[in-house]
Design a protein that fits this description.
heterotrimer, A alpha/beta (about 600), B alpha+beta (about 160), C alpha+beta (about 250), B: about 160 residues, C: 5-stranded mixed β-sheet, binds flavin mononucleotide, binds iron/sulfur cluster, binds FE2/S2 (inorganic) cluster
Chain lengths: ~600, ~160, ~250
C-alpha cells in the first residue's frame, strides 16, 4: 500500500474556464492545504498544481493523478477529504469519482481509455492541463524555450522562415493564410520599426480555445512570438487579449515577467544581442476588433474600425509599419515546428492543411469540451467518437463552425473532412474553432437570427452594405420567426445577402450572410414551414409555438405547475392540468421537467 | 464632494500612463473598473490630460462594450448568450429576469441594485446555460431557478 | 503604366486610385462618400468595380483601390448594377425622403421601399465625410457614436458642442444635405448651437462666424480682413485687371 502511495507525485487540478465555474479553485486550495498541513508528519512528495483546461469540461471539475495517470471527474469540495485519505495517502482509487462512459457503459480510469481523448492529437495544447501555467520551470521541463535557443543561436532568419513555410502552417485565426509566406513578406520590407502582434481577441460567441492556451500555457505563445519577431527583425510586440479574460491577462503578465527574468525576452535575448519585448493590450469588447486592421486601430488608441486591405499589413500595419499578426494558436504551434522540423509537422493532418486544430466542441453533444484533432478528421468522428454523440440521444441536425462568419453543416455532410478548404466549400469556414452541435430541438432560422442579431451589434457600422444590410436581413429573419413574413421575403433575403457578401469592406461584413445563406441552402424547408405554415418545427420560435398538455400522458403529478415561473398551469376540476395560453411565456420549463413527456409542443398560430 | 473624489481617482489612473494616444483605451478601462462607468467629469479630465478632443473620447466610450456611460447596478446579472447557451435556451432566462426585475437587457433597476446584461460566451459552455452575478457563476440554470438566484441578492423590493 | 477601364486604355501612375484614373478619362463611377478633398473613405461601396488580374477577378472599391500593376477594370457589369441597386434600395430604406438618394433611386429605376419601417426624419447615410472635415479643420466637434446598426454622428453627449466654431465645413461636404445649417440675419445655428455671424467689410453680407474668424486668425497667426470669399475673388480679379489691363 505504502509503495503505491509514493507513486502519486503530481496532482493536476483543472482550473480551466469550465471547471473554475464549478469551484475547482476551491478544490485546489483545499487539496493543497491538506497536503501542506500534513507534510511534516507524513513523507509524501506530492505536489498539487492548478492547471489550464483538461478539455473534458462536460464532467468537470477534473483532477488528474500522475504518474499513475488516472483521473476523477465531477469532483466537489466535499470530496477532498476522502481523496486525500484514500487516494493520496493510500493510493486507493475511489470508484465513484471515476468517469462513467455512457456509450461503452464502463468506468474509465485513464484519459487514454476515454473516447473523448482517444482520437485527439495535442500540439498547440501540448502543455495545457499538464503544467502550472504560472511556472516557467514547468514549461521548460517539457522542452520549453528549446526552440527559441535553436532559432536564435543556431539558425539564420532565412532558415526559420523556410522551416515555417515548409511546414505548411496556416493561420489558425480563421482565414488559413500561410504563416511562413506572411513572415517572408514582412521580412523583406525595409521599413522599420516592424511589429509583431498576437491576436487573442477571440470574439466568437461559442469559443474558448485561445483562452485556454493563454491561460494554460502562456509561454508557448511568448516563445512563438519571439521566434517570429526574430525572423522578421522586429523588436516590439503586442498581445491583444480580450478584456473579459482576466485570468489570461494575469497569467500572461506573470509569464512575460518570468521570460524577461530568464533572459528569453527583453534585451540581449540569450546573449544573442537581439532585443524584443511584448506588451499586453486589453481588448475593448468588440468582435470586430478581432479583424486585423480593426485590431491595429484599437491598439493605436482609436475606435476599432477596419480599413480596406488593398495594402497589406505586412507592408503597412500598426502605425503604418510592417506588421505580422497571428492568432494565439498559430503562435503556439511555432516552437513545435522549429523543434521537431517541418516534415514531422507536415506528417500530421492533410496535405493542404497540415497539423492539428483546436476546437471548442459544445452544444447538444454528450461530451462538451476543448479538443485538438488532426486536420482532416471528419465531422462525424469529432461529434460521435470524441463528442460521444448527441446528448439525450436526440437526433442530430446540424453543426455550426466558424462562429458568426461560418455556416451550418447538415447531416448529409457529416463525413466532410475538417480542414480549411473543405469547410469553405461547404459554405462554412474553419473560423477560429467554435464547433456547435445542434439537434432537432434547435431552430435553424433562430440560429441564423441569433448570429445576425449578434453581428448587428458587433459590426463597426462604417460601411453601408454591412450596417444597412445586416439590419434589414435581421428584420426579415425576425419577421420569419414571428410568422409575419411572406414568400417574397426569401428572395429579398438572398438578394441582400449576396450584395453584402460582395461589397462589404471587411471580413465581418463579407462573411456575415454565411449563417443565413447556409441555413437557407440546407434547411430551406424550415424557412418554408415558418413562412407558409406559420410553424416552427423545432418549437423554438415562441410566436409560432403553443405548449399544451397531452391528457392521455398526464399523470396529474403537478410537477409542471409547481415549476412554471409564470403560474400558467392550473388544475381543472377534472384533475387534468391545462396551460393558460395568455400567461404562458413559452419558456419550456414544463417540457423539461415532465417525466412523462406529456407537454406537447405544437405549431401553427393564426396569421396576424 | 463626491465629485472632488472622482477627480482624484481619475487623475491617479491617468497619470499611470504616458500621454500617448495608444493608452487611451487602457485609461478608460481602468476608470470604468474604478467607478463601474465613465463619469462625465472623468472624461473631461482625460480629455485634458491626453489633449484629445472630447468627441473622440465619446466615440470610443460608445463604441467599446467594455465601456459604459451609464452607472451600473450593484449586482450585475450577466446572462451568457454565447452560441452554446443560446441553443440551450438562454433567451428564456433573460426573459424571465426581465420580467421579474422589470428591466430590459442593458438597463438598471430604478433602485440601482440590479443591472441585466447579455454577454457573449463566458467559456463555460459545458454548463450552459450560464448566468453570472458579479463574479459568481450559476450553471445549467432553468427559468424556475431565476427567482431564487435573484432572492440571494435581496430580491426585488416591492 | 497603362490600365484598361471598360475597354479604354488609360494612363496610370503607381498608387493612384482607380476612381481618379476613371474620372480623368471621363468614365463615370457612382460615388456617395467620396470627396476629392477628403479622399479615402470607402464607406458607401457604390464605387465598387470589377478588377481582373490575369485569371483572378475581384470586386474592389475604386475610390480607395491603388493601382500597382496593369489591370483590367469593368465599371458597369450586370452584377455591379445589381449590387448598386441593392445598395440604393438599402439606403432608400434608411433615408426614405432624402433628395440625393431619391434621385439615385429613380436613376436606377427602383420603386419606393415599402418592405421596411423607416425613420421618416433620417437624412444621414453615415458616409463619414462630416467628421473627417471637422477633424481636418482641427476641431473634432463631432464624431461617430455607437457602432453597428446604431451608429450615428453627433456631438459629445448630444449636447451643443463647446468647441464647434460653426464653420459649416461638415454641412458643406455632406452629400445628402443632412446637416442643418441655418443663417438668419446675423445668427447661424448649426448642431443646435447659435453663433454670431460677421459681415463682409466689403459687401456687407454675413459670411463667417465670429468664433470661426478668430480661430482661423489664431491658427495662421496673422491679421486677416473680414472679407467674404466672393469679394476676395473679385478683389483679385480686379487686381489682375489693373495689372494686365484686360
Ligand atoms: C470579424 C472578424 C473577427 C475576427 N476575430 C478573430 C479573433 O477573434 N481571433 C483571431 O485570431 N482572428 C480573428 N480574425 C481573423 C484575423 O483578422 C486574422 O486573419 C488572424 O488573426 C490572422 O492570424 P492567423 O493568420 O494566425 O490566423 C477575425 C476576422 C474577422 C473578419
Ligand atoms: S463590413 Fe461591417 S464591420 Fe467591416 S467595415 Fe463594414 S461595417 Fe465595419
Ligand atoms: S465612393 Fe468609394 S466607397 Fe463611397
Amino acid at each position: 500500500m505504502k509503495n503505491q502511495s509514493m507513486r502519486i507525485n503530481k496532482i493536476l487540478v483543472c482550473c480551466g474556464p469550465g471547471c473554475l465555474s464549478n469551484d475547482s479553485l476551491d478544490i485546489y486550495e483545499a487539496l493543497k492545504n491538506k497536503i501542506e498541513s500534513d507534510k511534516p508528519y507524513i513523507s509524501i512528495e506530492t505536489t498539487v498544481k492548478a492547471t489550464g483546461c483538461h478539455g473534458f469540461c462536460e464532467i468537470g471539475p477534473l483532477i488528474k493523478f500522475l504518474p499513475l495517470d488516472f483521473f476523477y471527474c465531477n469532483v466537489k469540495v466535499s470530496d477532498v477529504e476522502e481523496i486525500y485519505q484514500k487516494t493520496i495517502k493510500n493510493g486507493e482509487i475511489i470508484e465513484r469519482l471515476l468517469y462513467h462512459d455512457q456509450n461503452s457503459n464502463q468506468k474509465i480510469k485513464s484519459p487514454e481509455e476515454a473516447g473523448f481523448y482517444k482520437g485527439q492529437k495535442k500540439i498547440a495544447l501540448r502543455n495545457v492541463g499538464e503544467i502550472d501555467p504560472l511556472s516557467i520551470d514547468d514549461y521548460m521541463k517539457r522542452g520549453g524555450y528549446k526552440a527559441l535557443k535553436k532559432a536564435l543561436l543556431k539558425s539564420t532568419t532565412e532558415q526559420i522562415i523556410s522551416e515555417v513555410e515548409e511546414s505548411g502552417l496556416r493561420g489558425r485565426g480563421g482565414a488559413g493564410f500561410p504563416t511562413g509566406f506572411k513572415w517572408r513578406q514582412c521580412a523583406q520590407m525595409q521599413n522599420f520599426p516592424k511589429y509583431i502582434i498576437c491576436n487573442g481577441d477571440e470574439g466568437d460567441p461559442g469559443a474558448f480555445m485561445d483562452r485556454s492556451i493563454l491561460e494554460g500555457d502562456p509561454h508557448s505563445i511568448i516563445e512563438g512570438m519571439v521566434i517570429g519577431a526574430y525572423a522578421v527583425d522586429s523588436h516590439s510586440g503586442f498581445m491583444y487579449i480580450r478584456d473579459e479574460y482576466f485570468l489570461a491577462i494575469k497569467n500572461m503578465t506573470k509569464a512575460l515577467e518570468q521570460a524577461r527574468n530568464y533572459g528569453y525576452l527583453g534585451q540581449d535575448i540569450l546573449g544573442s544581442g537581439y532585443d524584443f519585448d511584448i506588451q499586453i493590450v486589453r481588448g475593448g469588447g468588440a468582435f470586430v476588433c478581432g479583424e486585423s486592421t480593426a485590431l491595429m486601430a484599437s491598439i493605436e488608441g482609436r475606435v476599432g474600425e477596419p480599413r480596406a486591405k488593398y495594402i497589406r499589413s505586412v507592408e503597412k500595419g500598426l502605425w503604418d509599419k510592417p506588421t505580422v499578426l497571428n492568432n494565439v494558436e498559430t503562435w503556439a504551434n511555432i516552437p513545435v515546428i522549429i523543434n521537431e522540423g517541418a516534415s514531422r509537422f507536415k506528417s500530421i493532418g492533410t496535405a493542404q492543411s497540415p497539423g492539428t486544430k483546436v476546437f471548442s466542441l459544445v452544444g447538444k453533444v454528450k461530451n462538451t469540451g476543448l479538443i485538438e484533432v488532426p486536420m482532416g478528421m471528419t465531422l462525424r468522428q469529432i461529434i460521435y467518437d470524441i463528442g460521444g454523440g448527441i446528448a439525450l440521444n436526440k437526433k442530430f441536425k446540424a453543426v455550426q463552425t466558424g462562429g458568426p462568419s461560418g455556416g451550418c453543416i447538415p447531416e448529409q455532410l457529416l463525413d466532410l473532412k475538417v480542414d480549411f478548404d473543405s469547410l469553405d466549400k461547404a459554405g462554412s469556414m474553419m473560423g477560429s474553432g467554435g464547433m456547435i452541435v445542434m439537434d432537432e430541438t434547435t431552430c435553424m432560422v433562430d440560429v441564423a437570427k441569433y448570429y445576425l442579431a449578434f453581428l448587428s451589434e458587433e459590426s463597426c457600422g462604417k460601411c453601408v452594405p454591412c450596417r444597412e444590410g445586416i439590419r434589414r436581413i435581421l428584420v426579415i429573419l425576425e419577421d420569419i420567426c414571428n410568422g409575419r413574413a411572406q414568400d417574397e421575403d426569401l428572395d429579398l433575403l438572398i438578394e441582400i445577402c449576396e450584395t453584402v457578401q460582395a461589397t462589404a469592406l471587411c471580413g465581418l461584413g463579407k462573411t456575415a450572410p454565411n449563417p443565413v445563406i447556409t441555413t437557407i441552402k440546407y434547411f430551406k424547408d424550415e424557412y418554408i414551414a415558418h413562412i407558409r405554415d406559420k410553424r416552427c418545427p423545432a418549437g423554438v420560435c415562441k410566436e409560432l409555438t403553443i405548449y399544451s398538455i397531452d391528457k392521455d400522458k398526464c399523470k396529474s403529478c403537478g410537477l409542471c405547475a409547481k415549476n412554471c415561473p409564470s403560474s400558467a398551469i392550473k388544475q381543472e376540476q377534472s384533475k387534468i392540468f391545462t396551460i393558460d395560453q395568455t400567461k404562458c411565456t413559452k419558456c419550456g420549463a414544463c417540457v423539461d421537467i415532465c417525466n412523462f413527456h406529456a407537454v406537447k409542443i405544437g405549431g401553427a398560430l393564426a396569421c396576424r | 464632494m463626491e465629485n472632488q473624489q472622482d477627480f482624484q481617482y481619475t487623475r491617479q489612473i491617468s497619470q499611470q500612463y504616458p500621454q500617448d494616444k495608444r493608452f487611451l483605451l487602457a485609461i478608460l478601462q481602468d476608470i470604468q473598473k474604478e467607478y463601474n462607468y465613465l463619469p462625465r467629469e472623468s472624461l473631461y479630465m482625460v480629455q485634458e490630460y491626453m489633449d484629445i478632443p472630447l468627441a473622440k473620447l465619446y466615440s470610443m466610450a460608445t463604441f467599446y462594450k467594455a465601456l459604459s456611460l451609464k452607472p451600473k447596478g450593484r449586482y450585475i446579472i450577466k446572462v451568457c448568450d454565447g452560441t452554446a447557451c443560446h441553443i440551450r435556451a438562454s433567451q428564456t432566462l433573460t426573459d424571465e429576469i426581465s420580467k421579474i426585475l422589470k428591466i430590459a437587457p442593458g438597463q438598471t433597476t430604478s433602485d440601482g441594485r440590479f443591472s441585466l446584461e447579455t454577454v457573449n460566451c463566458l467559456g463555460s459552455c459545458a454548463a450552459a446555460p450560464v448566468i453570472v452575478v458579479n463574479d459568481r457563476f450559476y450553471g445549467k440554470v432553468t427559468p424556475s431557478m431565476v427567482k431564487t438566484i435573484i432572492d440571494e441578492y435581496g430580491g426585488i423590493y416591492s | 503604366m497603362q490600365i484598361i477601364i471598360d475597354k479604354v486604355k488609360c494612363e496610370a501612375k503607381l498608387g493612384e486610385t482607380l476612381l481618379t484614373i476613371a474620372r480623368r478619362n471621363n468614365i463615370h463611377i457612382p460615388t456617395l462618400c467620396h470627396s476629392d478633398a477628403l479622399a479615402g473613405q470607402g464607406n458607401c461601396r457604390m464605387c465598387m468595380v470589377e478588377v481582373s488580374e490575369g485569371k483572378t477577378k475581384k470586386m474592389v472599391a475604386s475610390c480607395i483601390y491603388p493601382v500597382t500593376k496593369s489591370i483590367e477594370v469593368i465599371t458597369n457589369s450586370e452584377t455591379l448594377t445589381k449590387m448598386r441597386k441593392t445598395l440604393v434600395m438599402l439606403l432608400s430604406a434608411r433615408v426614405p425622403h432624402n433628395n440625393t438618394i431619391l434621385k439615385l433611386r429613380q436613376e436606377y429605376n427602383l420603386p419606393p421601399v415599402t418592405r421596411f419601417k423607416s425613420d421618416d426624419e433620417e437624412e444621414c447615410i453615415l458616409c463619414g465625410l462630416c467628421t473627417r472635415a471637422c477633424d481636418e479643420m482641427g476641431i473634432s466637434a463631432i464624431s461617430t457614436v455607437n457602432r453597428g446598426i446604431n451608429k450615428k454622428v453627433s456631438t459629445p453627449f448630444e449636447e451643443p458642442s463647446t468647441v464647434c466654431i460653426g464653420c459649416g465645413a461638415c454641412a458643406h461636404v455632406c452629400p445628402t444635405g443632412a446637416i442643418k445649417i441655418e443663417d438668419i440675419g446675423e445668427e447661424r445655428i448649426i448642431w443646435e448651437k447659435s453663433f454670431e455671424l460677421l459681415r463682409c467689410s466689403n459687401c456687407g453680407k454675413p459670411f463667417i462666424t465670429r468664433v470661426g474668424f478668430e480661430y482661423i486668425k489664431n491658427k495662421i497667426n496673422t491679421e486677416i480682413e473680414t472679407v467674404c470669399e466672393n469679394c476676395r475673388k473679385d478683389a483679385i480679379t480686379k487686381k489682375l485687371r489693373d495689372i494686365y489691363g484686360f
